[in-house]
Amino acid sequence: MVSRNKCMTLLPAGYLFPEVSKRRRTVEEEYPGADIISLGIGNTTEPLTRHITESLTRASAGLGTPAGYSGYGDEQGMSGLRAKIADRVYNGSVAPDEVFVSDGAKCDIGRLQLMFGRSQTIAVQDPSYPVYVDGSVIAGATGTYDIQRQQYRGVTYLRCSPENGFFPELKDAEKTDIIYFSSPNNPTGAAATRQELKGLVEYAKRNKSIIVYDAAYSEYIVEKGLPKSIYEIDGAKDVAIEVSSFSKFIGFTGVRLGWTVIPSKLKYDDGSQVIRDWNRVTTTVFNGASNIAQQGGLAALDDEGLTELRGTVSYYLGNAKIILKGLKAMGVESYGGVNAPYIWARFPGRRSWDIFDEILRKAYVVTTPGSGFGPAGEGFLRFSAFGHRKDVEEAVERLKKIKL
Ligand code: PL4
């Protein structure tokens, strides 16, 4: 018999989002025909735009011709797409060969955790996207789970709450090797200021840490002066990796396309380059993103594609505005939703899963319980702005009726 990987036994029974879906299915079974609206999982709903769809169609038809067929490509991605990301997303501030195209940000986070291995200590914003902690648990980089405190003993949780403006107190934080940080943050919707990111970079430099900066929602940052990339901060290339994605930019959640930037200046303590190891990991356990998807990515970064994608982002931000306004009108203390597709709502004295169940059962609206994003999320719910406008409006009307 094969013995089970001990790390797997440290994980909670189920991953957050399948548990949300399971509870939704239970209500569907109990109340057949119930018209359930999801403001839960951050899954895009609007059709791909014309320019991007045309490029995907062309690429797919081309594969059926001798001239247009291609098999395996470079694991790092098409050189044209790497160059275009470097140029159009980073204004040439990173080099094309520092960009690695992937099948999505989540997948790259998992591969980064494989690369860093089990000996690294980690810190996360609390709350944050569960993959940072759960993936690190699988990689063996955390201690055991403390049920009382709802946290892993080997993880440093950097508390982000309304009280500290959703930016952690770094002065007294424990030194760790890896710091996961996302801006705008999922789930709080808070976008860090330039000054805050400057503090984060300085902190990482002082502690010789590496920041894994998740910019999956950076296109949702609309307020002037807020940085969209960690590389807008001086010195960040010495300490930061940036992971990003086409999922929420252009609705490629199902198509699958993302990228990771590893600056060549980023080094380990023995002086070796992180990018060399990343290249080794990528070429060993990844066979490249879909050639069709990469053509879609190229189109998305054309002038036309960029205009279209801004339209889609602004549609979801319009939904966010409706949810935020509705919750505030109900007297619910709510945050985010301005530079992010998520609204973070506080329910004092309530447990997240209880309020989640109540809303699901009384209003047939799915949300995501804040406690699933970390101990500081207890008592909060996350509302996702990904949905059709009419569903979002209907969901808000239903919430008003149940008096939150
Ligand atoms: C549900 C901060 C959503 N099954 O699509 P990817 O892999 O390029 O990006 C995933 C991702 C990366 N970084 C952040 C994210 O929030 C996400 C997607 N998060 C959510 O509702 O929180 C989708 C979740 C999916 C999952 O587990 O990722």
Molecular structure report:
With 404 residues, the protein is α/β, with parallel strands linked by helices. It has two domains: 6-48 and 305-400, Aspartate Aminotransferase, domain 1; 71-302, Type I PLP-dependent aspartate aminotransferase-like (Major domain) (Aspartate Aminotransferase, domain 2), CATH 3.40.640. It is built from 13 helices and 15 strands. It has helices spanning 6-9, 16-30, 50-62, 79-89, 105-116, 131-139, 194-207, 247-250, 274-285, 291-300, 303-329, 352-363, 389-402; strands spanning 37-38, 99-102, 122-126, 145-146, 151-152, 155-159, 178-182, 210-214, 240-245, 258-261, 333-336, 342-346, 365-366, 368-369, 380-384. It binds ligand PL4. The site of ligand PL4 has 16 residues, from helix 5.
